Amino acid sequence: DRSDAARKPMRGKLSSATRRDFIRGVAAAGASTVGAVAIESSGLDLFSEQAFARHRGNDFSEFRAIAPSSADTLEVANGFRADVLISWGDIFRGKDRRALRYGFNNDFLAYFPLRDSREGLLFVNHEYPDPFFLHGYKPDASAKNAAQVQEEQDSVGNSILHVKRRDNGRWKVVSPSKYNRRIYGDRPDLVFTGPLRGAPGIGTSAHGSVGNCSGGITPWGTALSCEENFDGYGTPVTLNVEFAYGWPQFGGQPEDAEYDFNTFKKYGWVCEHDPYDPGYVGRKHTALGRFRHENTAFRHEPGKQFVLYMGDDKNNEGVYKFVSARSLRSSRQQDDNRRILEEGKLYIARWEPEGRRRFAVAGSRDPLTATEGTGEWVEVRQSELDDTATKLRARMAADFGPAEYDTHFATNRPEDVEVAEDGSVFIALTNNSSVNDSHGAVRRLREDGNDPEATTFTWRDYAAGGPTGSPDPGRQGFSAPDNLVFDRAGNLWVVTDISTLSLNQPSNAYTYHKNNAMFMIPTSGPNRGVAFRFANGPVEAELTGPYFTPDEETLFVNVQHPGEVTGIRATNPPSPGKFGRERTYTSWWPEGNKT
Ligand code: FEO
Ligand code: CA
Ligand code: CA
Ligand code: CA
User: Fold this and answer.
1) 513 backbone dihedrals φ, ψ, rounded to 5°
2) Tens-digit pLDDT profile for residues 270-281
């Protein structure tokens, strides 16, 4: 990162060295932060697949890819070791030794260096509760009590963990630590910023944060956390509907009414938190729109406005770009940087010839539609920010007819977006049953002129999901890409999220895949675009949030929802899970190995 802000100490309670290390850390970690470096220094053809070839490897660059597995273990390639750092329910202690409980369904994570790659802060999202594992509820439409709702509210939000690497290479949570804290589903209050602050249904603050799926970081040292499936909390519990939590129904407190996502618009936003500042009041940025936010990836080029890319994780929804009104400033204007996400223009991508990959039948690997094309960024109106996708769909139908949105704005469900070193944007399009896309793809978008503020772009589907038929068990392909991260060697790391009830079935499109897994895809050289399997998750889990320390000696990853079938009511045959009798659970990880 070449901005002044990157090189000069930032203002704050922490030492300037801490902030500098953070910036050096994120720059070295690759990911979305180093576009400016490649563009100015490499002299490479930015539109060549060889743009990353100057890199040397890191500790993760060479491994023997592993075979698919349906075992109840977290398996990594030979020569690597995976340790459990913290699990749901574990107690860690914050200020004044106050006990904090690690939340459920960890998804996004990011490492914020305190000194270096051996001591830092992990910012972690807890996406959604699992009422069965919390208190034994299976969705049979029966009533919950207020204590159960509170337990669910306590299990979601975010954790900030002070972590340290021991001399033997294993990591521990530093506890107590003044940095350790939690944000919950109902507390503390976060404040709204931007054009819709104070608007009806929004107001000036919201109680806590829900649906925090993935997220991102900023160059000014904060974490962004994305509220994705915000509608389940206000939905009344219904027979066999798992993701309906009925908080307004059963919570018993007046503010529980605010989870009703039609009357109130308190959730579904991008939230900002400062892991380094235990007193920081979290923000919800209305300028970034309200939709099923998956994550954020920023791009900053010298002399250009700050840009943030985002996906709307829902079938037939779109990809967004925010262009700030304020410029990223030097250290003396750090308070200004903290307002960058409050004002700017939000755009949605319009794809030509069309945005979705359509297939004749489920499981097919041969799309009926083009795999490359052009596009333009269409501005979202301020009046559309509070229900962005719904209002855009209505506008496009009124202006251009009923097919416009699905043809040109819809995609096959964007999960993570990441900015590569050359400034191109990689988008995980996970799958979309409505157009028979079982396996998904990774799409690469290039702004015209490589200008982050461009209003037109080109695109190409870079790596397609599905079985490759390779005789090498470690290269048989991936399905349903979800989170993405680049390492500094330029490799793209991909985790998969095949839905739990589709995993390990005797005969479906995903049988070949076995458990969800993590893959490394080189972006240059003879193996570019080939997915090598690095890790397998345990039974019914997805791996989420992969994130390297700046030295890339450690890769943090979250293991989400192992044994998820245990708490699902409508399975055939019915799940044998009995609350509190752990032998009946479908996964024993991390306590044991059911298989
Ligand atoms: Fe929570 Fe977009 O997966
Ligand atoms: Ca996700
Ligand atoms: Ca997913
Ligand atoms: Ca997911």
Assistant:
1) -80, -30
2) 999 999 999 999
416 lines ligand 1 (CB under 6 A): no
* Residue 132 CA to ligand 1 centre (angstroms): 20
With contact defined as beta carbons under 8 Å apart, do 206 and 268 qualify? no
Contact 424, 443 (CB under 8 A): no
Please return the burial class of 569, using the count of CB atoms within 10 Å of its CB with bins 0-12, 13-18 and 19+.
Answer: middle
Residue 116 buriedness (CB in 10 A; 0-12 / 13-18 / 19+): middle
pTM, two decimal places: 0.91
Of all protein residues, the one whose alpha carbon is nearest to atom 1 of ligand 1 is 213
Cα–Cα distance measured from residue 545 to residue 123, given in angstroms and rounded to the nearest whole number: 10
CA distance 457 to 565: 42
- Report the chain's mean pLDDT, rounded to a whole number: 90
Cβ-in-10-Å burial (0-12, 13-18, 19+) of 110 comes to buried
Instruction: Specify the residue for token string 């301020």.
Output: 382
Radius of gyration from C-alpha coordinates of the chain: 22
> Contact at 8 Å (CB) between 275 and 179?
yes
> For atom 3 of ligand 1, which residue has the closest CA?
213
State the DSSP code for 536: E
Helix or strand (DSSP H, E) at 418: strand 414-419
Q: What is the pLDDT of residues 278-316, one digit of tens each?
A: 999 999 999 999 999 999 999 999 899 999 999 999 999
User: Which residue bears the tokens 């400062």?
Assistant: 274
Bridge partners of residue 286, in order along the sequence: none
Least confident of 80-94, 130-144, 322-336: 322-336
Phi, psi of 446 (to 5 degrees): -120, 120
SS3 136: coil
